[in-house]
Amino acid sequence: MRKYVLFRVFVGIVVLLTIPFLSICDEDDVYSRKREMMVRTQLQGRGIKDKKVLDAMRNVPRHLFVRSNLRSKAYNDYPLEIDEGQTISQPYIVAMMTQSLDLEKGQKVLEIGTGSGYQAAVLAHITDQVYSIEIREKLAKKAEATLKKLNYDQVQVKWSDGYFGWEENAPFDAIIVTCAANHIPPPLIKQLKEGGKLIIPLGSTLLFQSLTLVTKTEGKPKTKQLLDVRFVPMVGEVRKENSE
Ligand code: SAH
C-alpha cells in the first residue's frame, strides 16, 4: 500500500514537472508555425525573394519584441504599438526595406530608430556588424536588454539622436532609417560608403511618406522612390533643421 502511494506521488510530480515544459514547447511550435505562414503569405506572396531576408524573418521570434498582451498578434499583417507611442513595422515593410539594402555577410549596417530591436535582430541574421541608434532612453534600454537576452551579441545599441549617425563606426555599407524625416540627414550620407545604400521614409512627417532608396554615387545621393508608407516621425535635430 505504501509503495502504491509513493508511486502515485512520484507520477504526480513527474506530471507536474512536465506540464510547463510541454506548454513551452507547444507555444514555440505555435509561433514558429505562425512565422512560417507569415513568410509564405505576407512576404513570398508579395514578391520578397531574397533568401537571406526570408530565412532571417523565419528565425527572429518577433513575438518576443512586443508586449506580452500583443504576442498572439505579432505575426499579423500590420504594425503593432510598442512603448512610448512608437510602432514596430508591419513584417512586409521590414522585409522589403531589408531586401532593398542588398546586404552581404560581413558588411556594416546602421539603423536609426531601434524601437523594439526587431529590425536590428533581422539584420543581425544577415550580417554580424549591426549598429542601431534610438533617441528614447526607455526604448533603447529595453531593446538592448531584449537583444541581449536573445543572444544577439552582433548588435550594438546607442541611446542618442540618430540624425548625427555613428561617426566612430563609419563608414557603413548600408543605413536603414525607420522613422520619417522630411530630408536625409547630411551626416548619414557622409557616413555611407561610396556605392552604399540608405533607405528612409521621406516626406511629410505626419501623413504618408515615400519610402526612398538612396545610392551614394560619386559622393552624392541618387534617389529612387519605392512605395508610400506611414512611419512615426523622426524627432530631435531633424525638427530644428526643419524650423529654421
Ligand atoms: N525599427 C523599430 C521600429 C522603429 S519605430 C523596430 O524594429 O521595432 C521608430 C523609432 O525611431 C522609435 O523608437 C523612435 O523613438 C525612434 N526615433 C525617432 N527619432 C529618432 C532619432 N532622431 N534618432 C534615433 N531614433 C529616433
Write the layout of secondary structure elements.
Layout: H1 2-43, H2 51-59, E1 80-81, E2 87-88, H3 91-100, E3 108-112, H4 118-124, E4 129-134, H5 137-149, E5 155-159, E6 172-177, H6 186-190, E7 192-202, E8 209-217, E9 220-229, H7 237-243
Parallel strand pairs: 3-4, 3-6, 4-5, 6-7
Antiparallel strand pairs: 1-2, 7-8, 8-9
Helix pairs in contact: 1-2, 2-3, 2-4
The site of S-adenosyl-L-homocysteine has 24 residues, from strand 2, helix 4 and strand 4.
Characterize the structure shown.
- α2 (51-59) packs across α4 (118-124).
- 38% of the residues lie in helices and 23% in strands.
- It has a domain at 77-243: 3-Layer(aba) Sandwich (Rossmann fold), CATH 3.40.50.150.
- It is elongated.
- β7 (192-202) and β8 form a beta hairpin.
- The strands form two sheets. The chain has a seven-stranded mixed beta sheet.
- It contains seven helices and nine strands, in the order ααββαβαβαββαβββα.
- The chain has 244 residues and is an alpha/beta fold.
- It has helices at 2-43, 51-59, 91-100, 118-124, 137-149, 186-190, 237-243, and strands at residues 80-81, 87-88, 108-112, 129-134, 155-159, 172-177, 192-202, 209-217, 220-229.
- Bound molecules: S-adenosyl-L-homocysteine (SAH).
- The site of S-adenosyl-L-homocysteine (SAH) has 24 residues, from β2, α4 and β4.
